[in-house]
Design a protein that fits this description.
7 helices; mainly alpha; binds zinc ion; about 70% helix; globular; 2 domains
């Protein structure tokens, strides 16, 4: 995957995080200032800022959300951002082949290619 594509997926993931925060009603006042200026650009500095500047309030909010479905989703999105930084993004964690771009566009935090995902789901269904 090229740097340009990675950047596109990073923006996509950050946008998903924005949507999730908006859905949860978080950061209502503070996020407007923080995000509006670079909504069209790279939001990575914003998310780094958030991670570094975790206040007590933020920690409590995170502790609350981590137990929820949205919290797990946020966790997956953050992990995907870490994989972009680590240079492992877009690779299947099972077979190491490339996860299809169209799949990543639909599920940017996907960690497995569609074949491995299907195989795992079959296993779960006992097939
Ligand atoms: Zn795979």
């Amino acid at each position: 995957m090229t740097k340009r594509e990675l950047k596109r997926f990073r923006n996509l993931i950050n946008k998903k995080k924005e949507e999730l925060f908006a859905e949860l009603g978080y950061l209502k006042s503070s996020s407007i200032n923080a995000t509006s200026k670079d909504l069209s650009g790279d939001l990575s500095s914003y998310s780094f800022h958030m991670a570094d500047q975790g206040t007590d309030t933020m920690d409590r909010e995170m502790a609350f959300t981590i137990a929820s479905r949205e919290g797990r989703y946020l966790h997956h999105l953050n992990e995907a951002l870490e994989r972009i930084d680590a240079g492992t993004y877009g690779k299947c964690r099972k077979c190491s082949s490339e996860i299809g771009k169209s799949r990543l566009e639909a599920v940017p935090h996907a960690t497995q290619c569609i074949e491995c995902k299907n195989a795992e789901e079959k296993k779960h269904r006992g097939m």
